[in-house]
Task: structure prediction
Amino acid sequence: MTAEKNYDETPLAREVAELTRRRIALADAVLPRPTHTRVFTVANQKGGVGKTTSTVNLAAALAQSGARVLVIDLDPQGNASTALGVEHRSDTASVYDVMIDDVPMRDVVQSSPEFTGLDCVPATIHLAGAEIELVSLVAREQRLRTALQNFLRDAPEPYHYVFIDCPPSLGLLTLNAFVAAREVLIPIQCEYYALEGLSQLLNNIELIQKHLNQKLRLSTILLTMYDSRTNLANQVVDEVREHFPDQTLTTVIPRSVRISEAPSYGQSVISYDTNSPGSLSYREAAAEIAFRGAGGATLNGGVATTAPTDVPSVDAGEMN
Ligand code: ATP
Ligand code: MG
Result:
């Protein structure tokens, strides 16, 4: 008798089954919503580690789940604005006008066509000069915080999350982002030099805690561009988890062509190909962030322990 091949046991079938399981878990999940607006600064002075990709896709995933989310593009490259499909030609009113000319944030914010409830404060190329222009301004490291607090206080509908996408430097723009936020999210690329420069970033965060924003904390580390075929990627994952056991999300973002091609369509991968492995990972990471904020439950645990609160209190004084 010839043994019949069981196709359910092939690696491909297992992979498909696993993707289906993840998709169903996400579809069934009810993400808890924070009672306060959670403001994240997404920072790493190293270039190309996935700051913008993580900002855009986490924001899109949370908006897809029904949360109201604001992305502030604080990088003159304007990559987050591009990926969210919002206008950012040089004559567009942008975060530059907010920080340098005191234009209210509500006058420059745009709705992203991605999802209802997802808004973006765009960046234009003018922001490139802001690092220097800021130097001579009063309260130069508080400008974004003041503008954001005023905006959140007066917003007709409160936001659940704000993500600030930083440029790859530790200059005045990034400093403004650290002062405006309560939480820092550091994306770390799973590659050889991953941890280099991290101590400088952590020192800066500590200095800011001491002098400018006591409430700032490193809440989240997200491992990005993971390639399971390399031993090196696994070593980086282990090392980061060892150093930051509490902050590192369980979800790791894989290297994925879908993730990298989505921005060229002016989309996040969440809307571009919502059930692709890369999108599922960002949706899982977003769920983890939401559950961690609510204190403990997990996506695989099934249901939220905290019922979603539709209206986060936006007490600007409380924010920082
Ligand atoms: P910068 O420091 O220039 O602002 P960044 O830290 O914001 O860069 P991204 O722009 O998000 O990094 O990513 C750098 C490049 O890597 C982009 O081309 C992006 O499309 C690609 N990329 C990011 N994440 C992934 C991924 N998981 N899989 C494949 N490509 C990715
Ligand atoms: Mg970027």
Summary: The pocket of magnesium ion (ligand 2) is lined by residues 51-52, 75, 79, 165 (CB under 6 Å). Residues 25-318 form a domain with the Rossmann fold fold (CATH 3.40.50.300).
